[in-house]
Amino acid sequence: MTEESTPEIKIGEATVKVAHPSILNVLKKREHVKQQLSKVKHRIGVWSAKGGVGKTTVSINLAYTLMRMGYKVGILDADIDCPNVCMFLGITDRQDGNFPLKPAEKDGIRIISTAMYVDDTKRPIMWRGPLIAKMVSDFLENSDWGELDYLIIDIAPGTSDEPLSIMQLLDIDGFILVTGPQHIASANTIKSGLMAKRMSVHIVGVVENMSNGSMKGAEEVADALDCKLLGKINYSKKFDEMSDSGKVPVEYDTEIKEEFISIAKKLIE
Ligand SMILES: Nc1ncnc2c1ncn2[C@@H]1O[C@H](COP(=O)(O)OP(=O)(O)OP(=O)(O)O)[C@@H](O)[C@H]1O
Ligand SMILES: [Mg+2]
Asked: How is residue 101 annotated by DSSP?
């Protein structure tokens, strides 16, 4: 490609020369997503490369906390092949796949998830990377969220398909990283933070979930990434019992609610 034939694209105020047509495509999509989400004030990812540390739990409880504080909130379930948000919230609605995609609503919170577009949520979704990326881009480019103060994005574990697509396409305000107390959890959560830094995405801070009072997973993450410790949520059987029955812990337990209010206040700051 010669210097003269290099395509240019306007991103915000800047005009950028593009070295390869595929990159041009990504940049165009990114601009489109920006326009599509222009009525969404803040976009916050909840993420860890480590599975099972409580990303979905933190996403949902944070969303409810912000909603109770008076904000309009949406949750994008960006765990495409193992979507859990609807299961946690007891949502069984199915949506047609016509664009624009319409969120389901529970307690005033708008939710979009792959679980709404499969005929049987008990069956495994077995998709290769390109289909995962397509679904993420459909959710970002073709969903009608309306006006929102906060879009909370519950991101799949790992450092590949979903997080990479989200970071490429979405102008994300920042990530809340979730870790467990164990070194194995923090070591993997640090990897997510390093990927975020590499992709120039801000890290709001780290939440330690299922804390046991003695281990220092969150401190390890905060030190390695030079980010804030937003809070620690203790291991409590109540989480298991409530989430299995479609209840959101912050709605029923004062101690858990106070911890999430403190985390939400740090996010809002
Ligand atoms: N503080 C807690 N105390 C006890 N159980 C918890 C706590 N937080 C989450 N759990 C439980 O741990 C399990 C895993 O949580 P969750 O699904 O939120 O993790 P995840 O990081 O989203 O997992 P995945 O990587 O599969 O997406 C759930 O059954 C949840 O109810
Ligand atoms: Mg999850």
From this structure: B
Long-range contacts of 92-99 (CB under 8 A, 24+ apart): 94/119, 99/138, 99/142
Instruction: Specify the pTM.
Output: 0.94
Q: How far is the CA of 172 from the centre of ligand 1 (A)?
A: 24
HSE-up of 50 (CA within 13 Å, CB side)? 23
> Which atom of ligand 1 is nearest to 178's Cα?
21
Q: How far is the CA of 243 from the centre of ligand 1 (A)?
A: 9
Q: Is the CB of 127 under 6 A from ligand 1?
A: no
Length in residues, the chain: 269
All residues with CB under 5 Å from ion ligand 2: 55-56, 84
Distance 211 CA to ligand 1 centre (A): 12
Which residue ranges form the domains of the chain, and what is each CATH number?
Answer: 1-36 (no CATH), 39-268 (3.40.50.300)
> Regarding beta strands 73-78 and 8-11, do their DSSP bridges make them parallel or antiparallel, or are they unpaired?
unpaired
pLDDT for the residue 194: 97
C-alpha 36/C-alpha 141 separation (Å) is 6
Question: Could you read off the pLDDT of 174-232 as tens digits, one per residue?
Answer: 999 999 999 999 999 999 999 999 999 999 999 999 999 888 999 999 999 999 999 99
Would you say the CB of residue 54 lies under 6 angstroms from ligand 1? yes
Is residue 132 within 8 Å of residue 157, measured between CB atoms?
Answer: no
